[in-house]
Amino acid sequence: MKNKKNPALILLPLLIAIGVGCGIFIGRYVTTKNLTAKEEKLRMVLQLIQSDYVDELNMDSLIEATFPDLLSSLDPHSAYIPAEELQAVNDDLSGSFSGVGVSFQILNDTVQVIEVVPGGPAEKVGILAGDRIVKADTTSLVGKDISSDNVFKTLRGEKGTTVVLTIHRYGQKKDLVFDVVRGDIPVNSVDVSYMLSDNTGYVKVTKFSRNTYMEFFNALNDLKEQGADSFIIDLRGNSGGFMDQAIFMANEFLPAGRLIVYTRGRKMENEYMAMSDGRGRFQDYPITVLTNESSASASEIFAGAIQDNDRGLIIGRRTFGKGLVQNQTELPDSSAIRMTVARYYTPSGRSIQKEYQRGEIGKYEMDIVDRYTHGEFYNADSIKLDKDKIFYTTNGREVYGGGGIMPDIFIPEDTTGYTSYYMSVANQGLIQKYAYTVADEYREKLGSDRTIQRLNQVLPADQTLLENFVAFAVVNGVPARWYYINRSRDVIISQLRAMIARDVLGYPAFIELLNDNDKAVKNALQQINTGKSPVNLEKEDSE
User: Fold this and answer.
1) Residue 392 and residue 50: Cα distance in Å, rounded?
2) Poorest-confidence range of 65-69, 72-76, 296-300?
3) pLDDT surpasses 60 at 173
4) Is there a catalytic annotation at residue 333?
5) 98, 138, 296, 416 — which has fewest CB within 10 A?
6) Shortest CA distance to 95 belongs to which of 180, 192, 214, 238?
7) Among this protein's residues, is 284 annotated catalytic?
8) How far is residue 535's CA from residue 543's CA, in Å, rounded to a whole number?
9) pTM (2 d.p.)
10) Active-site choice (135, 204, 207, 322)
């Protein structure tokens, strides 16, 4: 017989945490006459711990150690945020933070500047993409012990403060020193937008922060001015953020009076229904939405609204399945809790949240691994649809609940060319390391014409690029096995060109070059070019 967890054990962290958090206050300031039997029990437990436990305990430390268990015992997404982590957590979604204005990568124990924020503090003093940051004030930023956290802590800081950066620049004999005054740095959530074809614009949204809607709206308008009359919206890897930003985005594409999302909770104040107002500027523009297993929360709200209203095709793989709504409350010591207060539902009535058992967080976290093991990433038939949870879109199409948004068109994960040779060089990071070693050479050759077209001209032919990389890999311990190299040829060359472009031109160029061989992007473009909609897709499926 299968053992079941004792409910008392599951609730123990909750009981202890409540006792630790409020017991002292209760014990000191409230008379026992005002306590319930359970509260009195907790007070007694705390007093016994303080007076009789074999070791003297720091009660504040006990509280800090217990709160994470308390919140995580409720559901997979309620969480405790310590005071020292709160600022960094908030910065990621707030829309800006104070720093020097560079994005970087750590390779070969060195911090390399990938991009410099236009108009930011670093650009103003002359720091360039490709520069190596070797020191911030007196803190060394080279060596095996350097981490991204170390770099963030030295580069970010209070607005108006100065950090002295020592820079090593390719072609310069001596290191350069720059006094950089930290300033407000925007946190971009629309990282890439460009014309994918003569009439189709592509927009990649990587998170839903406070400024996402305005970034998204501006990107759509810019692409419209360039001739776009249709859009591909890429939400792959977007783990979500603020719900209202997803609602504003969906509103741009829906006619008036369409339900976008609604929530249900114990309190009326946590129940909400969002309807489109008919003011969206892109209601008549064909769209497709790309999703995968890492698209979550606000990404699923947007995708669900588009799918349930039969407004556009969802292409890719089933989304994560996070449909729990959290409110963040800051505590007196500047820590915070994020507690689930409601659930999201799509317009058809589907709960976005996948199933979970309270207290079994490990199993929940393994869900993506289980999907992979069961073949869901590679075969649509491996998706476990709950036939008891059938819902209907505006035009009567069947869609399924049970967690996440199921795509209208399934695109398997592309493992073409994934040989043992490719896995060896990829796992050792040799493609990135090779791009890093040659980036300075090609950056210098570009001169002032910093475009993908110019980069493609100065890069060697595909076969020469491949051979140069193979020689680099041999030096780094991976022998040349040409049978497998030739089978992996296309994926290696594609990633080499994209990685070099990222180091030379920045992240948008990286995505643009990868998209040239992305099957989901190609399929989305094909659906738009052929005028395929959710309605005629359903008709084709039924014929």
Assistant:
1) 58
2) 65-69
3) yes
4) no
5) 138
6) 214
7) no
8) 13
9) 0.83
10) 322
